Amino acid sequence: MQIFSPNVDSILLTVLLVVLPNIAPYVVHAVRQYRSQQEGDSPPRTQLQSPLLPFLGWILMLHSLHIIYQILFCYPTNLFNELNLAVVTSSSLLRQALLKGRPADSELPNSVEALLSRLQSLDARSLYVRFGHDTVEHCDYCHTFADFALFAFPSAAMTYVQTIALVGLMTVKGSGKRRWRSWGVGILVTAAVVEAWILTTVDIQFTSDNGKTVMWHDGAWLLRHSLFLLLPIGIQVLPYEYDSLVLLASLPASVQSFERTLNSLQALEHLQAASLRNEGTRPIVDRYWEEQARLARAVRGNEEVKEEATRVGIGFGEDEIGTSPVVTFARDTVQRWKALMAPLLTDEQMGKGMPSEGSN
User: Domain residues of the chain, as ranges?
Assistant: First the structure.
């Protein structure tokens, strides 16, 4: 099937074969970089260092180029679409359209004549829409619906088997994609069953001479090959899995990160004292705590805040006995701790640090 002309098609195919393998690594790198930015700090992906990945990348590239070539240059032949005629067009008009532009004494190939003779039946045209041009033309021994179905389905099923094998190859151990194997195979098996069910049960509706009948075989072929193109690429883009060896290999980097964080937290403990000793930062710290004190006074003086705090049991206002709930909670806590520590404390220590009933 030619798209523009033989010369233009060959140039286009050459450009695809030369350009795509060169730009694909940059596209994959950009996708992985974007995904790593979205995930934030994560363990290093040791799977990316696997020797299988370059090999699998080339297999995926060749498969994608093969499917793109089939979609662009090997689209199923359709006599009615190419001649821009309705499916109900008579065989004589089809023959005239095929001979148009040829010498007067020229004849059609025997296979085309046999196809036109078979298409005189409306049932054969229904099978043409359902199973495609090649099935009706090349299956000489087919007479019943089951014969045509058994002739058409094995070739389509083989393409599904090939793609399932590719999915299995892309999800082998060491690829980091093993958990996606069942999903990929399940999608392909479901698509094969759905396609077979639709093509065998759909009701073919013929339109008028000027209308267009839905070519179910051609549409299913295009959807099938689009799935074959997008599914392996989708599996490649999906996140990698981490096994125990990968997590073990990531432990040193994680420990170093935790140590740096711990050192930063320990240094943060001395930040306030150090800032007060420095003449340049001391005014800044004083202004900060003055602002915090101002905000605290404003919050404590807000009646709505007081009511809400009292409602949830953490009120700081004066209650009916002259003590706030916060002070009461603190006193109860000290008493509980004293009861727990009584066996370890002397009588003199027991009398110290206990807030009085009227203290606030």
Answer: 6-242, 248-329
